[in-house]
Amino acid sequence: MRRLEVTSRWGDYPVLVGVGLLESLETIIAEGALQPPCAVVSDRIVAPLWGGSVAERLGIGLDEIPGGEADKRWSAVEALCGRWLDAELDRSATVLAVGGGIVTDTVGFAAAVFMRGIGWLAAPTTLLGMVDAAIGGKTGVNLQQGKNLVGAFWPPRIVIADIATLTTLPQRELRAGLAEVIKTAWIGDQKLLQLIPSTPDLGYRSLDPAGWEELVARTAAVKIAVVIADEREAGGRRALNLGHTLGHALEAATGYDRFLHGEAVAWGIEAVAVLAHRRGLLSDDGCARLRGAVATLGTLPPIADLDPETVCGFIASDKKRDASGVGWVLPTDDGVRIDQAVNLGEMISVVRLLQESRGKTD
Ligand code: GLY
To answer: For residues 98 and 40, is the Cβ–Cβ distance under 8 A?
Structure first.
């Protein structure tokens, strides 16, 4: 088991990464002097796989929320808080979220606002959750106008990343999580790219458990370092948006039902690699390494049929919401540059190039 520490203005917390951690949850809670949770919240898919057994082990109730991106809404938070009130949870309560990023984002946000803030514990069960969503305290839900537009910084008291939960993760979700691993590795630990399985089609079997543990722990370590340096995203944390500007636009342009988040980010990383290479920020070798890493993910949902101008129109509206202005994250050979200006014409031409070079065959 690896233990990493996050320092936070809302309270420091550990991130544990290991195989079978959920089986020793009581010990982890006792040894961490954590308030035992009064409720477990999971989604409809994860509840029968992991949430139910966790609730049974702890002798507490299991609550289910719908697990889709479309369900990550105010209404889910309101319903959850209502049920917590009915169950007589008070200000001293702690809840445990068992699931992917949608579960931890929603439960974390409900915990942030219920009784003006109760404690919560995160047990991410997706690769993306383990390396990204559950770490760093961003919680929130979507509005009709876009993703994560309401939320709070409200870190969990602990993150328990049980590698065993990856055994039940669909192969597509696992590959989507690897896109976030590539992003994070590029920012802070490029040697980590060598640990990415060359046969992700094998899903969990593409690495041994120790390999997954190392991959998750090292990726989490990079994210933790970034978050500690800039918890409220005043600057450096924006590096974690590498690949996300086009990624979000692709998700929005396809109604959030073509790409998993990580798949859209994978296209976004390729696009900024091309752009940075054109600008001379990324060498031939750097561009080949970054695009090569994305290529190991295999076939992504296609972009060939999308109108580049329409997709890039979503970038403009996304950026208008960003008070810091039009800031792109572009890769360099040894990391990234944040707050780079990119005009829409440049972006449209890169999307066209990707459609011609790769999209049409996917
Ligand atoms: N997922 C990006 C961040 O936590 O800042």
So the answer is: yes
Q: Evaluate: CB of 132 within 6 angstroms of ligand 1.
A: yes
pTM score: 0.95
Q: Can you tell me whether residue 246 is helix, strand or coil?
A: helix
Residue nearest to atom 4 of ligand 1 (CA): 136
Mutation test residue for ligand 1: of 187, 240, 261, 265, the one with most atoms within 8 Å of CB? 240
Question: Known catalytic residue: 244?
Answer: yes
Helix (H, G, I), strand (E, B) or coil at 54: helix
- What's the farthest any 2 CA atoms get from each other in the chain? 60
Summarised one tens digit per residue, pLDDT across range 195-249 is: 999 887 888 888 999 999 999 999 999 999 999 999 999 999 999 999 999 999 9
**Low-confidence residues of the chain, pLDDT below 70?**
317-326, 358-362
Distances (CA, A) of 162 to 23, 83, 217: 9, 27, 11
| CB-CB contact of 198 with 296 (8 Å) | yes
